[in-house]
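## tool: complex_structure
## caller: assistant
## args:
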Amino acid sequence: MNMNVSTTGQVIGVTSAEKPPIVSLVNVSKTYVRGKLVALTDVSFDVGHGEFVVILGPSGAGKSTMLRCINRLAEPTGGQIFLRGNEITNAPRSLRKARQEIGMVFQQFNLVTRLSVMMNVLSGRLSYRSTWRSLFYSFTREDRAIALECLEMVALGHKAFQRADTLSGGEQQRVAIARALAQKPKLILADEPVASLDPKIARQVLDYLKDVSQRLGISVICNLHQIDFAREYAERVIGLSQGKLIFDGPPGALTDDILNQIYGSRMESAVE
Amino acid sequence: MPRITGLAVQPRLSLGGRAKFLAYLAGGAAFLAWSANALELSGGELFRSLPVIGRYLGRMIPPDWSALDGLWGPTLDTICIALWGTVIASAIGLPLGILAAKNLNSSRILRSSALTILNVLRSVSELIWAIFFVSAVGLGPFPGALALGVNFGGILGRLYAEAIENVDPKPLEALRATGANRVQTILFAVMPQVLPQIVSYNLYWFEVGVRSATVLGMIGAGGIGFELVTTIRLYDFRQTSAILLVILGLVTLIDQASALLRSSIVK
Amino acid sequence: MSSQYAAAVDQGLAREASWRHRRMAVRLLVMAGFAIVLWLSASRIHLSLMNIILGVPNMADFFGRMVPPDFSNLMSLAPPTIETVQIAAWGTVIAVVASAPLALLAAHNTSPHPVIYFVTRLFLNLLRSINELIYALLLVSAVGLGPFPGVLAIALHATGMLAKFVAEEIEHVNRGPVEALQAAGAGRMQIILFGIMPQVLPAVVGYILYRFDVSIRSATVLGLVGAGGLGFALITSMKMFKYHETATCILVIILLIWAADAISSHLQKKIL
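## result:
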């Protein structure tokens, strides 16, 4: 049995036979160009219910690739990935269901700028709706209530009917978080969610992310390259360097030695 | 040409590049010279025909405005032909354009089939299509609209496909990550991005359609073209010029309206 | 669903409903208006699906008479094909020569007098609004059959289109280089040659290539009124009821336009 303990002594992320981890990576590898380009090598770890995990590493370390393997935006070339105990790596039919349970937040927000904030968040509900209904851009009342609630959670309910491109960067990322929340996910993947934002706004966004994770019990795997953000927000840090997992533990255990291993010569880019 | 810094001057080609450019130019000039000979074009021919054309123009002035009586109907027909032509073209072009777009369709066979159909549709002139449709449904403006629809369908389809391929891919990725299926992704991530462009294209080609529709009358496919050709065949050139001026007015009006609508779409 | 946000959500739902209903009402009104216009024009031109279906046997008959295409005298189509290209080439060349002065007169910033600007624009509109085929018809009446009226017909229409395009490019030119030249004391012609022309050249050359492509397409049908080229071969074969040859003509036309498109877009990409 694996127990992860947060800095306040709260037990979180208990993995055991009764409660499978939310996501499990077993020896996941990813190569490109018929094996010539190696992005990931034998990455294995579990993430438990409600855990906030930060993946730390310089750019090019494979953080993005690994995240995309989890919701199969990229296909791993080796290994297996389990979602709540069910294998999703070679199962094409359950893809939609799997993605429904995994929300994703992107570095550049990836909103549809011409649509309203509300419509953007509603598009998180699409996996629950039939194609026919979507042809008319129609959603149920329940969908709209969920969308508004998610917007309230990121304090943007009052901007629901504005066009998405009228919002600032930080606000757009919060809308993206609301869109992910609208899926009612068990897991949220955040790929460098604050890399395009200045530090004060970045902290705001990370605050929201951490807050919804704790309140709703959603596990979060967050890619970051900024060490101090990792220290501030992570309950658990996984260090990735050149496609290999070289550290897995609480942020307090991040010694300079280990950071050097992760970043090599690129320390400056990590300290902002 | 002297090189002036700080101004917009073309980049200088390398020696090899310049040689190639001159070779193309020489080749083109040779082709033109040969063509002029083959087509019996010459400055002399032009000069000799100028007085003939001048006399012709003289027979068209002043315009006989009596031609305008009974022109209202055919004018309306022409507009209807262009309107339905554009609508049919959109209906044909949109599905084919979606199938032909690289970022929406990974099946190469499907894409190239769609593209081939679109190419055939646009390569066959609308006049030939009109002849084909006249044989099918008879004379009148109806085959004109069908011909326009089919021909413009090919043109619009290709333009749509291009617009779709130039769409920002990031929202597409995000929507797929939420578990939306292909159709939903197209509806929510692609359509909002290309809609203004599609409307703009439709308005522009509607305008082109009006001009084309004026010609379709020549083969009996309705509209002002028929009246025009009749006046030419009856040597009633003063009426011809009157009708030409009406066409000018119509096209200018629609041109302005179209430009106005298009600029308001760019929000 | 937490009750913390219930009030805000309900309020939001009410607002959203009224916003959505308003937008839908407007959209339905516009669509209804459009539908009425379409329906009226459909009945005016006797457009009906029934007639299309009834006409299918005729279309099938048409096709049947054309297929299989008669390839035996393919080579005899070579001269008309070349003639078509030649007509398009010379038509475009004349248009380029004529457009240069006209475009300068039709642009705000280079026109010597607003009246000249206005008159030129009107003249160009006149040239543009009349289809090449109508010009061809009139010119054939005037100077007789053959490729010569075809060349003039293409030249007239293309001049209208090209001159308007160049005039608009000239009006959108960057003022900077122009002012620099003015400050250096350059004369009017010099300003045009060194300040304006280099800026508009790439777009204009691209448009000339596009125009040449369109001219080839128009030139193929000019023969229908006796102005030479493949259209003439086509209409001749139709009048002699040799529909298999008509099919060959159509195929050659398709191939020619394909080739012209490919070359034209290839060249356009090279200069951009």
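## assistant note: Confidence is low (pLDDT under 50) at residues 1-9 of chain B. The radius of gyration of chain B is 24 Å. Handing back to user.
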